[in-house]
Amino acid sequence: MYRILEYFILFAVVILLQVFVFDSLQTGRYFTPFVYPAFVILLPMEISGWLLLLLAAATGVTMDVFMGTPALNTIATVFLAFCRPGVLKLFVEKDVLDEGGIPNIARLGTARFIRYSTALLLLFNAVFFVLETMTLTGIGYTLLRIVLSTAASAAVVYFCQLLFVIHKSKI
Amino acid sequence: MYRFLLFLKKILFVLLFAVIEAAALHYYAGSSSYNQAKLINASNRLAGGVYAGMADVRRYFTLGRENRRLTEEVASLRAQLDAARKREAVQPGLPELPFAADSAEFVYRAARVIKNSLTRSENFITLNRGADDGIEPDMAILTGGAIAGYVLHCNARFSVAMSVLNTKFRTSGRILGTDYFGSVYWDGHSYDEVMFTEVPKYAELQAGDTIVTTDYSAIFPPDMLIGTVVDFELFNGTYYNARLKLFANMGSLNNVVLAGYRHREERRELEERTERN
Fold first, then answer.
1. Are B145 and B213 in contact (CB under 8 A)?
2. Is B112 a domain residue?
3. Which of A5, A64, B218, B252 is spaced 20 to 30 A from B118 at the CA atom?
4. Could you tell me if residue B63 is inside a domain?
């Protein structure tokens, strides 16, 4: 594996951002920006499946301990990781995929990166909020939360990914 | 052989996914609010100091409002004290002040909210005081005479409490000035409103009615404010369901008072023994 240190820093940054910034911001019931899935979204494209799942599980468990959500973050993050190869295949051309590397705007292009990350975040938010609500009454309300939170998450993940690109170009 | 390995690799991915998700779902299904509070308190060992520091910074921006609130509370307590003194003067034979007798049933502690979630279905409040400061599970959290939650789990330095804004929160409420009761819970929608249900249809419920805590609770002192009725409807012609506007401003909890019921253990023991028989 390469860039282990950088991914380690990214992991720490997204967890700290989520715990101390986005979870402390009182953004309202409809609006929960998730930044930490950025870690799983930005893992190298050629990563092996089992490692992807294990890293996602580790991320989820860390967030669960901080948020006090028993396994909720783990379930959603591992689901995101499970869907990632499929979503990548759907939005990214085969030659880019084969080339590998970090799936950021430099490699995928802005439009494709936004589509790729938003699709994954939508799946993540859907699992998270449906499980959290655990009821089908007020499904419209849950859907609204999913859509708005996905939009907010996509925005913060986009900025997070920019940091990663700037950071890389400096080295 | 290569194909087989590829197949194995694919299967491994799905299998691993299924195993992790099954374990996580199993844990999720079996978890209680107490487990969650314990989990948060475990992370407080690491992050608690940071939360406290951040709360300190935030506190500076609300000092003015907080001061005003405290002054108002002092004024209202003074008014109550004067009224009680007057009553004593009118009836010198009165053996004990009723509120004094009540207050002896509870111990009070002060604490500050250092973390307070609002955005989830199950919200928790983290306090900067723990077991070392005399905080115990089941103490009520009061802000300006209104309920905000109760303590679930304490470690030495921090406590985690269930917020009123937690879909697992339950208590009973009484319409002030009557003897009609109902149950209070949060439906998970708005963070300044809770539901007040199963109110007997004979209660003459009106918008604007004040709902307070009852004597039944082993957690909340009686007659603490919960909320005022916003609107209500008759359900099935049998009971009322009402929406309450909370008195506690959950979005800006800061200094809170904790009330612990002294005879909780005795009471619980007695109730359990009676139920068994």
1. no
2. yes
3. B218
4. yes
